[in-house]
Amino acid sequence: MASVSTAEQQRLRVVLVDVRNPLNIGATARAMSNFGFTHLRVVNPYEVAYREARSAMGGASVLQEAEEFKTLAEAVSDCHLVVGTTGARKRELDQPLERLEQSAKKIRTQLAGGRVALIFGSEKFGLSKEDLTYCHSLLRIPTLEGHASMNLGQSVAVCLYELVRDAKVKAMKRVAPGPPVGAIDRLTDLLIQNLRTCGYIKPLTATSMEHKVRRMIRRLDLSAHDAELLTGMLRQMSWKLRPDDAE
Amino acid sequence: MASVSTAEQQRLRVVLVDVRNPLNIGATARAMSNFGFTHLRVVNPYEVAYREARSAMGGASVLQEAEEFKTLAEAVSDCHLVVGTTGARKRELDQPLERLEQSAKKIRTQLAGGRVALIFGSEKFGLSKEDLTYCHSLLRIPTLEGHASMNLGQSVAVCLYELVRDAKVKAMKRVAPGPPVGAIDRLTDLLIQNLRTCGYIKPLTATSMEHKVRRMIRRLDLSAHDAELLTGMLRQMSWKLRPDDAE
């Protein structure tokens, strides 16, 4: 599935519930800026932390436009899908629990047409039992058993990354074009000449050795710049290898 | 592609170069613990930050076993593939630059047989031109143009998550089994009976309405518990709706 569009990203609400550490509020806003999400909602924050985070640098516009709510119910009332995050694995959950990879697919699908709230609980306790009753489903980041609890800012970044990652992305090629074939041939000929001079290529097996060298040079997949560089080096060596001819 | 195995994860070296902030060293170690990576290497750290991070909580064993190096060359000398991370997009790069999604595929492939170093530069400057010469390739997390610079701890978490994420993961189903068909039928019959009593279902269209109700109940995909709960509610209502029969 392709990644979300900008219009779809505008439909996501990142909701922080009972968060206490200003660094985490700041880190959330920064990750949102990094990945192109804009709407942050904060429920019942520790006021000092919230003010401190707002005055700090990074992700500034996300924080300035953040909305504050007294209750989670109010914060998600205009959303069509509410997904909670949890480190839980075995504890009794009344909602379906999915891995992030799977949950993100549903969130992307829903974002095509409606608002989605992605909820993160407090650093110490996560989401409360009551908070969970507002969630249609829960997601967990695939962390290791026994090391499941992630830093809040890091878990926000991972979730948002999964929403924007593109499964179909192609490798970006080096921008610089390769060397023209003529340059590669000159390089190859110089190398072969040197190898002959120094006795590496022997008359009896010359042809097959020369083919080997030619194939090897092609495998190197040299840039134009590197081909030129290597040619210069080999030319210098050839002068040293055949001092008689050079006179 | 499936995610990496534990043995493969042991072959990754996370390398921090010139890192200054103890919180970032700690956050790196914590993300490594979360996602099952163990080998941290630190190049030329600010000594105070390194000591402070080592004495802090979280990701403790990763930090205790971290190796310290004077130079990046030494830190990656036993690795078969060295991948640098960068927020750069357009600046002149001599290495191939790939998106994380693509680069992670190559890293996973290489981890099947050899050690891979994943390099993160300092908070302020990233990797230096010289650091980059030790990299076979560079990866960038797909952040937004103009908001490319990520928090170090968050970018480590995102990269490690991409390495362990499983593209083929299936939705985890609710563990509790659904209700037996008989329970669904009792529920449906009760609802139909109530709808008749209260005049919602009229004799002329009774059959088609009853079919509608039956299909709707099935669409709800109720758990056994919820089916029982709803049945109880409807039974209670039916007593109130038909006081004469109840006597």
Strand arrangement in the largest pleated sheet of chain A: 3-2-1-6-4-7-5
Largest sheet of chain A: 7 strands, parallel
* Alpha carbon gyration radius of chain A: 30 Å
Q: Helix/strand/pairing class of chain A, anyone?
A: alpha/beta
Q: How much strand content do the residues of chain A show?
A: 5-15%
Average pLDDT of chain A works out at: 85
Helix content of chain A: 40-55%
Unreliable parts of chain A = 171-175
Distance between the termini of chain A: 67 Å
Order of SSEs of chain A: HEHEHHEHEEHEHEHHHHH
Please state the overall shape of chain A, judged from the principal axes of the Cα atoms: elongated
Question: What does this protein look like?
Answer:
The structure is a homodimer of 247-residue chains. Chain A is an alpha/beta fold. Chain A is 48% helix and 13% strand. Chain A contains 12 helices and 7 strands. Chain A has a 7-stranded parallel beta sheet with strand order 3-2-1-6-4-7-5. In chain A, β1 (12-17), α2 and β2 (39-43) form a beta-alpha-beta unit. In chain A, α9 (181-197) crosses α10 (206-219) and α9 (181-197) runs parallel beside α11. Chain A is elongated. The N and C termini of chain A lie far apart (67 Å). Chain A binds chain B through residues 3, 23, 27, 30-31, 33-36, 58, 96-102, 141-144, 147-151, 153-155, 157-158, 161-162, 164-167, 169-174, and chain B through 3, 23, 27, 30-31, 33-36, 58, 96-102, 141-144, 147-151, 153-155, 157-158, 161-162, 164-167, 169-174.
